[in-house]
Design brief:
The chain has 74 residues and is α+β, with helices and mostly antiparallel strands. 47% of the residues lie in helices and 15% in strands. Strands 1-3-2 form a 3-stranded antiparallel sheet. The protein starts with 13 loop residues before the first strand and ends with a helix.
């Protein structure tokens, strides 16, 4: 009988807009345009007027962009 080990709690790192801009190289308006077009991760509400993005989702999006870019070149 296989036993499953308890998984450690998932830790989520949240990036605020300046960090997302720095990591992606995109401007604020481009980020929100792509969010509206559903081509960029959706921010999560942190309360009040504060939002942030899950670091893992931004890293996955970047990896996807890199993979698509590499595929497009002959």
């Amino acid at each position: 009988m296989a036993s499953t080990l308890p998984q450690p709690p998932t830790r989520h790192s949240i990036l605020r807009l300046p960090d997302v801009k720095a990591r992606t190289g995109l401007s604020r308006s481009t980020i929100y345009l792509r969010v509206a077009q559903k081509t960029f991760p959706t921010p999560i509400n942190l309360g009040g007027r504060a939002v942030g993005w899950l670091e893992a989702e931004i890293e996955d999006w970047l990896a996807q962009q890199i993979a698509e870019s590499r595929k497009a070149t002959p």
